[in-house]
Amino acid sequence: MKKIKFKKPRWLKGFKVKNPLKNRQLFKKLSRKDKKTTKTISSGIEVKKKDSISTRILLGLLLSTLLAVVVVGVSSYLISNNIIKEKVTDASEQTIIQAGDKLDYMMQGHRDRISELLLSDNFTTTLTEVTRFENTNSFEYYTAKKVIDDALTNISMVDKNVTLYLLDLDKDTLISSSATVPEVNILESEWYKEAKEADQSTYWVGGLEKGVSQSNKEPTILFTQRLSISKTDFLLLIELNKAVFADALESVRFGEDERAYVVNENNQVVFSFENDEITNAYPYKFTMDEGTNVTQVNDELVFHYPSTVTDWYYVGSVSESELTKDTRIIFYITIGIIILSLIVAFFIANFIVRSIATPLANMSGLMAQAQDGDLRVRSNDVSRKDEIGYLAKSFNQMLENINDLMHRTTESSNKVM
Question: Can you give the pLDDT at residue 46?
Fold first, then answer.
């Protein structure tokens, strides 16, 4: 009978055939199954925490959530901030325009009242007669002058916030007034000299800290009207009390605390609710650009409207932070949502880690044990319906197949021996 040679598998080359009984016991030991218990290994290898898949899943979910929430939150905050700023800016522009129209209507009313006076035949005729008297102590002079005084006084009585003064520019004398004032206080003032030399018929003097008399407790606002009657030039002074502008601008606000101002072309304050600011420089310089009524000066938005009746400007200002202070609540809500999202993302990531990363780590440990020769290990995740469950079943089946192969190889080896 011919002897058959049996070639050993590569993985059996380490076993010596000289003692077949010893080899048989070794194979039986390696392939023995424990029917009562199944070994489960939590981890058979050491992986650095920063390199583990669980850490990557956790950090990836947290960072992606943080990035998404931050982008959405910051974008929403910035967009809402800009929208609110634009809306409030537009509203403030309309506020200064409406306030300006209101003041223009008021100033036009004062000018119309003066025009009615000047167009009165009795007034102009009497004024012409007064200038022709050489003897100012005569009864006829006082009679004519009384007509002028009464005309000015009547206007002041109708509107108690208006005081009128009439001067002869050729003689530099005060003809009449509705209030007592030293003549020298007018004639020696700088504004009188400027009004006298002005080319325009109406000269807008502006604010006077102590009024025309220089003895008022409250500032006043002054403009002048030049009259030419019978080749004689006169200057009519129209002095307005501060209350005229204060009442018109009382309800005008920019932000919570900022009030409206009236300034002249030299940026000097004509009217302010604060007396010490009148005649001083307005703190913000602005330029009148076509198509806009707002100028940004550093962090301050200056709203301005040129008067269509006077040479003045109606202005108001508010800081950008004041305009957008109501959006701070959006910022705080955004921060709260970011924190809440991170907390929720942490719990979700932790759940994913327990569902995926932990079973994979267990499987890695089982494979390490099998690699060391312990073929009794089995995975307990076979009941899962996902990829982890299929992987566990395949792993267990693989070990079963290896065990079967080892049994068959052992039996074949024993027959050969």
Answer: 58
Mean pLDDT, range 331-338, rounded to an integer: 83
CB-neighbour burial class of residue 70 (10 A; exposed 0-12, middle 13-18, buried 19+): middle
| Residues in contact with 77: Cβ distance below 8 Å, sequence separation at least 6, in sequence order | 327, 330, 331, 334
Asked which of 38-42, 46-50, 358-362 is least confident by mean pLDDT, the reply is 38-42
Q: What is the pLDDT of residues 73-88, one digit of tens each?
A: 888 888 888 887 888 8
Lowest mean pLDDT among 57-71, 103-117, 264-278: 57-71
Three-state helix/strand/coil letters over 193-250: HHHHHCCCCEEEEEEECCCCCCCCCCCEEEEEEEEEECCEEEEEEEEEEHHHHHHHHC
Q: Taking 50 as the threshold, does the pLDDT of residue 18 lie above it?
A: no
Q: Given this model, what pLDDT does residue 48 score?
A: 65
Output 23 or 157, whichever has higher pLDDT.
Answer: 157
What six digits make up the tokens of 368?
Answer: 């390490």
Q: Could you give the percent of the chain with pLDDT greater than 90?
A: 21
